TrEMBL record:
Keywords: 4Fe-4S, Iron, Iron-sulfur, Metal-binding. Signal peptide: none annotated. GO terms for molecular function: 4 iron, 4 sulfur cluster binding; metal ion binding; oxidoreductase activity. PROSITE patterns: 4FE4S_FER_1, 4FE4S_FER_2. Gene3D superfamilies: 3.30.70.20. The lineage of its organism: Archaea, Methanobacteriati, Methanobacteriota, Methanomada group, Methanococci. SUPFAM superfamilies: 4Fe-4S ferredoxins (SSF54862). This is Ferredoxin. It comes from Methanocaldococcus lauensis. The keyword 4Fe-4S applies.
Length: 62
């Protein structure tokens, strides 16, 4: 599984919709960035893509 954040689109910790809605806590806030911290836990549920307001998150099977 590959979880990626496009930082040209991501609104950062002020948004954090992915951090707050991922059931597996894959995302974390790290300083002024939202990062993919636990990619191995991802179950490919698609919630992060659904809640991201800018389309910055992509989840793709490897
Ligand atoms: S697809 Fe689901 S489990 Fe994976 S990072 Fe997104 S919200 Fe979390
Ligand atoms: S939901 Fe999208 S825009 Fe918001 S912090 Fe996550 S990746 Fe960035």
């Amino acid at each position: 599984m590959a979880v990626t954040i496009n930082y040209d689109l991501c609104k950062g910790p002020d948004c954090a919709e992915c951090v707050n809605n991922c059931p597996m806590e894959v995302f974390e806030i790290d300083g002024d960035k939202v990062v993919v911290a636990r990619e191995d836990e991802c179950t490919y549920c698609g919630v992060c893509e659904d809640v991201c307001p800018t389309g910055a998150v992509k989840v793709e099977p490897e």
